[in-house]
Amino acid sequence: IAPTAELQALDAAHHMHPFTANAALGAKGARIITRASGVRLTDSDGAELIDGMAGLWCVNIGYGREELAEAAARQMRELPYYNTFFQTSHVPALTLAARLAELAPGDLNHVFFAGSGSEANDTNIRMVRQYWALKGQPERRTIIARRNGYHGSTMGGGSLGGMAAMHAQGGLPIPGIVHIDQPYWWGEGGDMTPEAFGLARARQLEEKILELGVENVAAFIAEPVQGAGGVIIPPDSYWPEIQRIVDKYGILLIADEVITGFGRLGHWFGSQSYDIRPHIMTIAKGLSSGYQPIGGSIVCDEVAHTIAQDEFNHGYTYSGHPVAAAVALENLRIMEEEGIVARVQSETAPYLAKAWASLADHPLVGEAVSRGMMASLALTPDKASRARFASDPGTVGFVAREYSFGNNLVMRHVGDRLIIAPPLVITPDDIDALISRARKTLDQTHDHLRR
Ligand code: PLP
């Protein structure tokens, strides 16, 4: 490959990075990743990094699995593309749909494929509205979502998401989507106990339904654990209360499992970890461990059977793409054969939880929490009062992330939170290495702030 500086110059001149101030990045130069194996990335200078984020929360089985490359090549030779519109289907898409119906809980037996999580959430918006229209209640159109939730970057996905920085640009949200507060106890819970706060935040759903009129509400969407919002783990009281409210008012529940699906919380789906019963689950990322772009909606009998009564005028060229579907099937086969989900629950997540919690003694750390293979730290100037960094909430996290990168550890920051979500196959030794780099990062950030 060309020298790093040459690659960086080309990148800066022509490549627009998502979620990035490209002018600032261009001046500094992107880190160019060239290869990866297991949980480790290699850059164009030959440095090796621990990928604490599994790419973007997606490389669940780790990098470099030859079987997935073989599955892709085999499928490309046999049938590289065909569509699933109208009256045609093909073996990879139908086999994957059947396999997902087997894995998904309850009567989530039907799959509408998309190319990504954002596209799948756009599908969900249209599907729940069409469902109520076919039920003779077309005025039930409003979807309730949460502030600081993340559901993608399309007009629909970005609108369901409650990211203020996204809503500030490009005309989001689209009409018919409203937001309630997130169950973020450490940051917003004040003097309440986590349990009381979880209940209060869940009851905002009921208040919002009553304010809008239940006859106008189509669905509630949420991530079992908010990922991009900063790995916000809800108090235990939150989800049972949400389920009670959804049941009481008969609105549809959409669990966005794009991150929490496929083992991240120690079950195949996060909904199982929290014992919730969604009507639709959004999936992507870990479905193929990120080896191919694929997403979708897993839909319950009632919604799918209703939608089936009329033509659903919606779909993507790459819905059920055969190569992506073949790779996803092979990914799921490996995950099952190697018992990866069960191992997360019995070994890897407990090990990570203990190691991660050890960071709580650091003077900068307000809380160090994890659920399954998602973990986060709150950075604080004062632990006792759960104080937030005042000026620009992004600053301290940004500094920490830069040190982390310098320490060859990929962590992400969201405002004043540092987060990880490593490949599910990470070993105890690699978790130890990750923790020691994270601690060094915290020490450097602490020194930096005192300068
Ligand atoms: N939903 C959640 C919960 C996500 O975390 C993401 C991506 O991070 C998406 C949806 C959007 O998925 P994609 O980036 O594949 O469009």
From TrEMBL:
Note the CDD domains from the entry: OAT_like
**A GO molecular function for this record?**
transaminase activity
One Pfam family for this entry, by name? Aminotran_3
User: What InterPro entries does the record point to?
Assistant: Aminotrans_3, Aminotrans_3_PPA_site, PyrdxlP-dep_Trfase, PyrdxlP-dep_Trfase_major, PyrdxlP-dep_Trfase_small
Cofactor(s) recorded in Swiss-Prot or TrEMBL: pyridoxal 5'-phosphate
Domain of life, source organism: Bacteria
Arranged from A to Z, the UniProt key words for this protein are: Aminotransferase, Pyridoxal phosphate, Transferase
Tell me its family: Belongs to the class-III pyridoxal-phosphate-dependent aminotransferase family.
What protein name applies here?
A: Aspartate aminotransferase family protein
What organism is recorded for this protein? Roseinatronobacter bogoriensis subsp. barguzinensis
